[in-house]
Amino acid sequence: VQLQASGGGLVQAGGSLRLSCAASGSINGVWHRRWYRQAPGKEREWIATITTNGLVSYADSVKGRFTISRDSAKKTVDLQMNSLEAEDTAIYYCNINTKLGDYWGQGTQVTVSS
Fold first, then answer.
1. 16 vs 11, 13, 41, 52, CA distance in Å?
2. Do 96 and 23 meet the contact criterion of CB atoms below 8 Å apart?
3. Maximum CA extent, the chain
4. Is 90 exposed, middle or buried (0-12, 13-18, 19+ CB in 10 A)?
């Protein structure tokens, strides 16, 4: 099973992007779906989670601006990013956490120009 993240790009501050992460096959025993990001020179940081029950949580840095969602039929997990700031510039990674371990996408670059 592979995860493919898409939707990144260059956007001006204040703009929006929607990231999507698609799984190439079926993944059993899913617990959580998450998005992380890694800015240049910084460690990877968690930014959002959606559980199998639909409960969501966010890092303080993105709360109120980002929205995580999932489409079980399409097997995707999306991240709607609004009011983007220069500090949001990073490579964004999707993650699916299962009882057998984690799956990671390859990352998609988001660049916000100020």
1. 7, 9, 24, 26
2. yes
3. 42
4. buried
Q: For residue 25, is pLDDT > 90?
A: no
Q: In whole angstroms, what is the distance from residue 72 CA to residue 53 CA? A: 11
Residue 87: phi and psi, rounded to 5, are: -70, -10
Which residues are paired to 17 by β-bridges? 81
Evaluate if residue 14 carries a pLDDT over 90.
yes
**21-43 in b/e burial notation, b at 16+ Cβ within 10 A?**
bbbeeebeebebbbbbbeeeeee
Query: Do residues 92 and 108 touch, judged by C-beta distance below 8 A?
Result: yes
